[in-house]
Specification:
Blueprint (H helix, E strand, L loop, with lengths): L3 E14 L2 E14 L3 E5 L6 H8 L7 E6 L2 E2 L5 H11 E4 L11 H12 L3 H14 L15 H13 L5 E5 L7 H18 L2 E5 L3 H4 L4 E4 L4
Parallel strand pairs: 3-8, 3-9, 6-7, 7-8
Antiparallel strand pairs: 1-2, 1-4, 4-5
Helix pairs in contact: 3-4, 3-5, 4-5, 5-6
Length: 221
């Protein structure tokens, strides 16, 4: 049985700005199995965030093929990719992208309501997830009332809301001090283990990378 979570073949991504062409990803072959954890390494500008966006279906490659759970992205339209993402992929952005006008609990509940769950059920699961990330006493706080580490925990809980097959994370410890980075790393790995999901992290944090199963250095591909 094929155990691939992601499989990329001759993946290319070029950004065009007027007459300038910037090739960020070139002929990348890459695969990742279900149930594994992987760190994406490389200097700023090497394509880590771009690759995460391609794998999540947030952007499309210039050429090449991406398969997710054996589904070819090239055969899916934007609505189908969005549906696959909301059902299977939890994405944690580098700068959280929490909605400032909503509470922590409401931010976490939103993906579930977008999937079609009733508000009461969504809010209850959001409350349960706040317990898992040790923020139950912050359920009514808005993002502006939370510390950086707390906002990151809310973003992680939001990514877990729809019980995804995998988590994609962009620099989850990048803006945190050493103590908070360790707290977030421990939390991420605990959630991944407890829920049996896969993890792909773009990071410069070697302490985090060393705790994952595999490493892909884009600077060397």
């Amino acid at each position: 049985m094929n155990n691939n979570l992601f499989s990329c073949t001759r993946l290319n991504k070029t950004f065009n700005q007027g007459l300038n062409h910037s090739e960020v990803i070139s002929d990348l072959d890459f695969s990742m199995d279900q149930g594994t954890t992987l760190a994406l390494l490389g200097p700023s500008g090497c394509g880590k965030t771009t690759l995460l966006h391609l794998l999540a279906g947030l952007d499309t490659p210039t050429s090449g093929e991406i398969k997710f759970l054996n589904n070819k992205f090239s055969l899916l339209n934007s609505n189908e990719r969005a549906q696959m993402r909301i059902e299977n992929i939890g994405f944690v952005y580098q700068f959280h992208h929490l909605l400032p006008e909503f509470s922590a609990q409401e931010n976490i509940a939103l993906p579930m309501m977008m999937k079609g769950f009733q508000k009461e059920e969504s809010m209850q699961r959001a409350s349960d997830l706040l317990v898992e990330v040790n923020l139950i006493n912050k359920n009514l706080n808005k993002p502006g009332e939370l510390s950086g580490g707390e906002r990151q925990r809310v973003a992680i809980a939001r990514a877990m809301a729809n019980k995804p097959s995998c988590l994609l994370m962009d620099e989850p410890t990048g803006d945190l001090d050493q103590a908070n980075a360790k707290i977030i790393t421990d939390l991420i790995l605990s959630l991944v283990s407890d829920h049996g999901i896969s993890l792909l992290v773009a990071t410069h944090d070697m302490t985090l990378a060393d705790r994952l199963d595999k490493v892909l250095n884009l600077a060397l591909t």
